[in-house]
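User: Can you predict the 3D structure for this chain?
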Amino acid sequence: MNIELILKVAGIGLLVTAAYQVLAKSGRDEQAMLVSVAGIIIVLLMLVNELGGLFDTVKSVFGL
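Assistant: Here is the predicted structure, written as structure tokens:
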């Protein structure tokens, strides 16, 4: 895992947090919740790709 993935996740977290705060302060709580859920889904999709690479590496190391 490289530092690029960590920075991407942190950047998405900052953007989602800012958007959530703006929407929540303006009284759009439903949209704010959707933004936070979308951010979580995006980060999970990024991590699933990395986990697939991890499992491939483990399989190749152990010859499975």
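The two ends are 22 Å apart (CA to CA). The helical segments are 3-25, 29-62.
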